[in-house]
Design a protein that fits this description.
heterodimer; A: hypothetical protein PF0899 fold; three-stranded antiparallel beta sheet; 3 helices; 6 strands; about 30% helix; B: about 230 residues; Rossmann fold; 9 helices; about 20% strand
Chain lengths: ~130, ~230
């Protein structure tokens, strides 16, 4: 359910990108997803596969993902560790004074897109 | 190239950027029009609508109040709230499990101009997704009810992290449930050291006056600042 809302946001963002770049159709979308972003990828893919058929811009487009490893920093000993292995407690010194350095990302990295041949067909360039 | 080919376009857009942009627009509008927006969030059955009716009854002599009811379907809550003499707008989130900023803006558009002094958004009953989507509110007010247990912050940390104030509702049922306020507070503080916690019973009214008085003062202070700035 949550993933469906996220897919709606992704598609909305893609429409903005398409407008800016004179895109006719999108062939694939690559997401960067942090290990602790809280997004369930299987669900997200299911939602994507359902939603993409309802939108001409992304009809049939493939969803690709790149995972970003989650890393936490300990403020007590300044060392870093893998978040998914140890959570909030530093495995080096046992401190709980830690913060997430990366791993909660959820962003669109790139798209493969078919452009309009003639800018007249699409949104006119307004520069 | 004669064949139609695919180009790679770098996007690098955070997906929440779309929502955050709309949240900033809501916030800007609330500041410009001098309106206080509350995002009320809780599990299904925590007592959102009952609390809301209590807030309305306590504050309506000081402020004009509007309510946005977000539900996936149905308008039972909106009808209940209308009985308390405020303007209510029913929003159906459809397939989505939370309100986002864009839907909030649409909800605001459904009120007559000028907007009420205070707009309360009763979010979808859910402790996960509403926490992740900023709607541009001045306050995120969360309700936890005693029967849900004092370990909720451990299960839904983000909701307790992002919320400003917490109402612990249904305290009249505390003797029946193994609910420990100290344990609750110990679970909350690492997530949110500044969270204000109010034990209340919306049903009996216990603790509600202390809460609504503080809320009214907060709203008055923020509205004065917003309107002072724009005048």
């Amino acid at each position: 359910m949550h993933e469906l809302g996220i897919v709606e946001h992704v598609i909305r963002t893609l429409h903005d990108v398409a407008e800016e770049n004179n895109v006719r159709r999108i062939g694939s979308v690559t997401l960067e997803v942090g290990e602790v972003s809280g997004v369930v990828m299987d669900l997200l893919t299911d939602c994507w596969n359902w939603f993409r058929e309802k939108d001409d811009l992304v009809k049939g487009a493939e969803l690709l993902t790149e995972t970003i490893e989650a890393v936490t920093v300990c403020t007590a000993c300044d060392k870093t560790y893998r978040t998914v292995d140890h959570g909030k407690t530093c495995p080096h010194c046992g401190s709980k004074e830690t913060y997430l350095l990366r791993g909660n990302e959820f962003s669109i990295k790139q798209i493969e897109a078919e452009l309009f041949d003639d800018p007249e067909d699409g949104e006119p360039e307004t520069e | 190239m004669s064949e139609r080919s695919f180009d790679i376009i770098e996007v690098r857009a955070g997906v929440e950027a779309d929502n955050d942009r709309h949240a900033a627009l809501v916030r800007e509008r609330m500041d410009r029009e001098g309106v206080y927006l509350i995002n009320l969030m809780a599990s299904p059955g925590a007592g959102k609508t009952t609390v809301l009716c209590r807030i309305i009854d306590a504050l309506s002599d000081r402020f004009s109040i509007g309510v946005m009811e977000a539900d996936m379907d149905a308008d039972v809550d909106a009808r209940k709230v209308l009985g308390h003499g405020v303007k209510a707008v029913q929003l159906h989130t459809g397939t989505s499990c939370h309100m986002d900023a864009k839907m909030t803006m649409k909800g605001l558009d459904a009120f007559d101009n000028p907007l009420p002094d205070v707009v309360i958004l009763e979010n979808v009953g859910n402790l996960v997704c509403p926490a992740e989507f900023d709607v541009g509110s001045d306050m995120r007010l969360m309700i936890l009810s005693v029967p849900e247990g004092d370990d909720k912050p451990l299960k839904y940390p983000l909701m307790f992290t992002v919320s400003d104030w917490l109402l612990v509702n249904k305290i009249d049922t505390a003797p029946v449930f193994d609910f420990d306020f100290t344990r609750l507070e110990n679970n909350i503080r690492p997530l949110n050291p500044d969270m204000e916690i109010f034990p209340v019973s919306a049903k009996t009214g216990e603790g509600m006056d202390a809460f609504t008085e503080k809320l009214a003062d907060r709203i008055a202070a923020v509205l004065a600042e917003k309107r002072g700035r724009t005048v």
